[in-house]
């Protein structure tokens, strides 16, 4: 299936978001509730990669984080679509340059 972005269509055709910005500039999970909120790191600082990794792990961006993931289960329920637990094609095979 297709990858779901932050904005996605629910099973009944409504537009919804996985993540929303907070008043303090952080990010909260719109599916999992107020206990799932992260402070945004300075984009130039070393915390930025950790911030991105935390969000990606939470939402099942990495195949290794999908099985048994509550966010993924909620997303499947909202969209009516199953999220694959398989990894996508390697970067080079997907037409993107490989990481160095």
What would you say this structure looks like, in words?
There is one protein chain. This protein is α+β, with helices and mostly antiparallel strands and 100 residues long. Helices cover 23% and strands 14% of the residues. The protein contains 2 helices and 5 strands. The protein has helices at residues 47-59, 70-79; strands at residues 7-9, 15-17, 19-21, 27-29, 37-38. The strands form 2 sheets. It has a 3-stranded antiparallel beta sheet, covered by helices on one side. A hairpin with a 5-residue loop joins strand 1 and strand 2. The two termini are 28 Å apart.
Record keyword descriptors for this entry.
about 100 residues, three-stranded antiparallel β-sheet, alpha+beta, two-stranded antiparallel ribbon, about 15% strand
Task: Give a brief outline of the structure.
By secondary structure, the chain is an alpha+beta fold.
Low-confidence stretches: none
- List how many beta strands DSSP finds: 5
Structural category = alpha+beta
How far apart are the termini? 28 Å
The radius of gyration computed from the alpha-carbon positions, rounded to a whole number of angstroms, is 15 Å
Proportion of helical residues: 10-25%
Q: Strand content of the residues, in percent?
A: 5-15%
Strand order of the largest sheet: 3-4-5
Shape: globular
Major sheet, described briefly?
Answer: 3 strands, antiparallel
Overall pLDDT level: 84
Order of helices and strands: EEEEEHH
Number of helices, where a helix is a run of at least 4 consecutive DSSP H or I residues: 2
């Amino acid at each position: 299936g297709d990858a779901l972005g932050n904005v996605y269509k629910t099973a009944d055709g409504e537009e919804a978001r996985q993540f929303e910005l907070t008043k303090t500039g952080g990010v909260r999970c719109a599916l999992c509730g107020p206990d799932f909120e992260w402070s945004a790191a300075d984009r130039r600082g070393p915390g930025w990669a950790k911030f991105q990794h935390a969000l990606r792990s939470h939402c099942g961006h990495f195949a290794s984080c999908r099985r048994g993931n509550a966010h993924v289960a909620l997303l499947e329920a909202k969209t009516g679509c199953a999220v694959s637990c398989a990894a996508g094609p390697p970067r080079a095979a997907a037409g993107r340059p490989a990481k160095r």
